[in-house]
Amino acid sequence: MELYDSLGNLLLTVVIPTHPPIIIGINQDFPIPPIGGDFLFNFNAFIEKEEHLGRINYLLETGGLTVGAYIQNIIILQHGLKPGVEKPDASLYMNDYYKYWYRYQIYSPYPEFPDPEMGIKKLIIKANKEIRFEVPSLYPVPMPGGKLEINYAKVLDSKDLRYVKNLTKKEALYCFKYEKNEMWFQLGIPAWIKPNFSQSEQNRYYSFYWTRNPEYAPEYWLTEPFVLTYPSEPDIRIEVPGSERIFIPGITYQINWKKFLPTEHLERIKEELEEYERYADEWIDTKTVIHGRCGFNPDL
Which domain of life is it from (predicted)? Predict the structure, then answer.
């Protein structure tokens, strides 16, 4: 029993214990917990038939689905825990789920979940004295030439915090050396470095991380209003309060325009929105520019 995707790639075959069984194919890299572990999957995003979804949801609500057997390329699921099998500690496999869902949120059955544990990065500020601190490995530390943006109160002790706040009153910190697990920063853009990345894209990474972890966001990001610009004739510009701040990477989420656009603007572009959604793909300081799905300008 082999299943393939539209490109001819072999899929994992998952057998769901309904009557009759429902069989689906999932990507080979999807994390599979040990026998007896909970099989956590967003069936709603991948199964179209309401009848099938109803059967699966009944199993999920009345005992859940666990891994009953894993034979070659076939995963056989069990309704509840398989008799004679001791339920494994969820901490042994949940982080694998979190890693996968962080990259591919559509597979997560939960709207929110913790960031995966990936270790730490070490950051060093080089000024009159060296200041060292740590951030989670997933934190989007910029490449050489990039600007460091972070809530220093989250990562520094009180003494170093006062020093860094005074240090950066007039000038920001920029990366000048990026090693395997250590990143070095100095005041101002290093004269000898030509950044080989898009600052706009770097800001997208920041925003994605801060949306999930607002305690790491600089104060201005949460308090200052930001501007959404919708390309139209003429352009539509609106200010969104910092308390309702969103930033949505173009490949991940769509923007709920009904929430932010005044009625008169919404009526004017309603047909466009019904045809295709606009995506946010630039963020510079407190301005967000909206383009079409493939409108990102890598030269910004």
Answer: Bacteria
* Cis bond upstream, residue 34 (ω within 30): no
Are 109 and 41 in contact, with CB atoms under 8 Å apart?
yes
∠ Cα 207 292 111 (to 5°): 45
Radius of gyration of the chain (CA): 24
115, burial (CB in 10 Å: exposed 0-12, middle 13-18, buried 19+): middle
pLDDT (mean) for 248-259: 52
Enumerate the H helices of 224-262 as residue ranges.
Answer: 257-260
At 237 the three-state DSSP class reads strand
Higher pLDDT, 297 or 199: 199
Mean pLDDT of the chain: 84
The structural domains of the chain, with segments of one domain joined by +, span 12-130
pLDDT of residue 118: 94
Residue type, 261: L
Q: Is 245 exposed, middle or buried (0-12, 13-18, 19+ CB in 10 A)?
A: buried
The 10 Å CB-count burial string (b at 16+, else e) for 129-168 is eebebebbebbbbbebbbbbbbbbeebbeeebeebbeebe
CA neighbor of 124 nearest in space, from 111, 115, 112, 133: 133
Task: Report the pLDDT value the prediction gives residue 120, as an integer from 0 to 100.
Answer: 94
DSSP output for 137-152: TTS-PPPTTPBP---H
Stronger pLDDT, 23 or 275, i.e. the higher one: 23
Residue 164 has pLDDT above 90, yes or no: yes
Is 84:104 a contact under the CB 8 Å cutoff?
no
Confidence at residue 293, expressed as pLDDT on a 0 to 100 scale: 40
Q: What count of Cα atoms within 13 Å lies in the side-chain half-sphere of residue 45?
A: 12
